[in-house]
Amino acid sequence: MTRPRALITGASSGLGRGYALDLAADQYDLVLVARDEARLRELATSIGTEHGTLAEVVVADLSTRSGIDVVRTVIETSRIDLLINNAGYGLKQGLLESEVSELEGQDMVLAGAVRELSLAAVKQMRSRGRGGLINVSSMAALTTMGQYAASKMSTLVFTEALAGELRGTPVTVTAVLPGFIRTRFHERLGVERPGPGWIWLDVHEVVAASLRDARRGKVISIPGASYRAAARIARFVPRSLVRWGSTGFSLSRRDES
Question: Is this prediction's pTM over 0.85?
Fold first, then answer.
């Protein structure tokens, strides 16, 4: 039988790498997308050796028009059974210290590319009569922590709207809202991990929970019991308090996955 095929953006490290390893173990063929060709090829080789599945490498910068076009062409010209939009982009500075071009690049990766690739994929999936879409948003979407939060909220609402339009079809759509995850992200930023240790989730924990929720057809996946509780409470917190809590804690991220 033909193995299922998944395309993962931001696949070279962190959460994206975790999705790749989990799906390869589940006998998925993969299309791995990121900017770092060396890390992508190392991962593809490791997957092929350990699991015997195919892992193609696509080098693309999703903050650029050309990068998005490269990935969209793959989606439109080959079978993709599962698309995981995971590529990240953060900035160390706040809104006032960032260049407009930097904010636009961040929004392109976190929202614009997600929107365009999602639409290309689900149209193909709907025509074939099956498929799944996972868009990685963030618990930051519930805060006011800069452009990062704004873009992640955009992706969350877009994904929910898309799920509504695809209700009753065989195509599942899931937005994942991870909290803090133990990756090399903060090390690359050159900052300390904020908060107590208990708020940090393992990559495998987030991957396993979100894939399980997606296979069940859940529209929103929030890995971690403490984060699910926080999301429920957040609905009743006044926006003034959300703004106060977000100020000074708005570490914008640059996950070069």
Answer: yes
